[in-house]
Amino acid sequence: MTTRDISAVKTASTISLLAGIWLFISPWVYGAYATPKVWNSWIVGYCIMLFGAVRMGSPEVRGASVVSLLLGIWTFASPWIFRYPGNASRFVSSMCIGALVFILGAYASSVGRTTTAPPPLRT
């Protein structure tokens, strides 16, 4: 990985970490902290923060970005899975955070990856 690749991964991971922080605190912001399904935002937000921090500290750990990508998909789908009734702001926030984390995870997992042609077959 080049210095530029490492910088790109750290930037994407920092943004992902901040998105995880927002997801974690969003139930208090939107007044949903007393609902029974709030655990999803807390657990997934914490995991997004954790994997963002891991990738920031160790840019070569590509798997952390792949897990973040999957958490982004889950976060995007969670408003439909848990049916956030009457809370449009939380609904949109989860969709935006999910899309952002997915895109950042996809980008960070692909940075520095090179493809090489397989060696020619000998006959």
What is the CA-CA span between the terminal residues?
35 Å
Largest sheet: none
Helix content bin? over 70%
* Residue-averaged pLDDT: 87
Global Rg: 17 Å
The global form is elongated
Structural class by helix and strand composition: mainly alpha
Task: Supply database-style keywords.
123 residues; mainly alpha; 4 helices; 73% helix; elongated
Structure described in brief:
The protein is an all-alpha fold and 123 residues long.
Describe this structure in words.
By secondary structure, the protein is mainly α. It has one domain (3-110). Helices cover 73% and strands 0% of the residues. It has helices at 3-29, 39-57, 62-82, 88-110. The chain starts with a helix and ends in a 13-residue tail after the last helix. The mean pLDDT is 87.
Topology diagram in text:
Elements: H1 3-29, H2 39-57, H3 62-82, H4 88-110
Helix pairs in contact: 1-2, 1-4, 2-3, 3-4
